[in-house]
């Protein structure tokens, strides 16, 4: 992100709202960067611009040196509320993301099952989302995100709806899985603890409009141990 400023026009009042101002940071290939800050400092806005949902008012977002001008198939998304389709089994949900890829049915199934295996959900491939716990559904959602073999994964508060214990287990599991997959990742969270547990580097935002106020490396073996 190079000197990003984003100004919205408020739907109700028509007033201008500056969500983020003069924000710059970068993420190296294979790195997991956590973007942390209080509610309203522009975290979701940043993610939406990186995903190409909308552009910045000033500055630019680059992926591999290329300006982002729209959504891209190589960017995988996972949000706070998983969007598993309730009428599809877990394996069918993971296959869903693969339907635009040039794989036949058998290949899709094979890839989806391999992803579920990695997320320790192989035994639940034929279950339906409502039969799984919240933590299991989030694991299924990550399996679906990783199945498309994205270059970049964007995680937006993926654990905020989970209980503390499930959260801790999943934070470590997700960080390792993403490291093993060699995927570049931006994690958005308001939880500094989660940022430290999961990431290689933390970018701290603050204020309204949000700006980068700190940035530090995490020197723990947390993603490989
Ligand atoms: P979060 O705190 O998780 O970012 P919000 O409730 O702030 O979630 O935002 C939910 C959605 O509503 C986002 O897509 C955001 O872009 C949009 N949004 C937030 N504030 C406004 C606003 N004042 N006017 C219009 N849309 C908004
Ligand atoms: P965070 O994710 O850190 O909670 P957001 O990116 O959701 O912060 O919001 C940052 C600011 O931008 C907030 O004041 C929010 O209301 C505003 N905002 C976000 N999206 C929109 C939108 N689509 N329209 C108007 N204002 C928005």
Automatic annotation (TrEMBL):
The keyword Nucleus does not apply. PROSITE patterns: ABC_TRANSPORTER_1, ABC_TRANSPORTER_2. Keywords: ATP-binding, Nucleotide-binding, Transport. Pfam families: ABC_tran. InterPro entries: AAA+_ATPase, ABC_transporter-like_ATP-bd, ABC_transporter-like_CS, ABC_transporter_ATP-bind, P-loop_NTPase. Residues 1-225 form the ABC transporter domain. The keyword ATP-binding applies. It comes from the Bacteria. GO terms for molecular function: ATP binding; ATP hydrolysis activity. Belongs to the ABC transporter superfamily. This is ABC transporter ATP-binding protein. It comes from Pseudooceanicola sediminis.
């Amino acid at each position: 992100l190079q000197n990003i400023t984003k100004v919205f026009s408020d739907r109700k009042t028509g007033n201008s709202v500056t969500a983020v101002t003069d924000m710059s940071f970068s993420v190296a290939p294979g790195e997991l960067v956590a973007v942390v800050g209080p509610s309203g400092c522009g975290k979701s806005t940043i993610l939406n611009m990186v995903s190409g949902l909308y552009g910045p008012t000033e500055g630019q977002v680059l992926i591999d040196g290329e300006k982002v001008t729209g959504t891209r198939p190589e960017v995988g998304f996972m949000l706070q509320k998983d969007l598993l389709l309730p009428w599809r089994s877990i394996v069918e949900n993971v296959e869903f993301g693969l339907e635009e890829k040039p794989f036949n049915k058998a290949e899709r199934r094979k890839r989806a099952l391999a992803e579920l295996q990695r997320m320790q959900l192989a035994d639940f491939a034929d279950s339906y989302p409502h039969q799984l716990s919240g933590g299991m559904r989030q694991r299924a959602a990550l399996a679906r995100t990783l199945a498309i073999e994205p270059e970049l994964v964007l995680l937006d508060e993926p654990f905020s709806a989970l209980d503390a214990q499930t959260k801790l287990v999943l934070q470590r599991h997700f960080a390792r899985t993403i490291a093993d997959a060699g995927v570049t990742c931006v994690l958005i969270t308001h939880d500094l603890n989660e940022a430290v547990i999961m990431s290689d580097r933390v970018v701290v935002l603050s204020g309204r409009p949000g700006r980068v106020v700190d940035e530090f490396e995490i020197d723990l073996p947390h993603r490989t141990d």
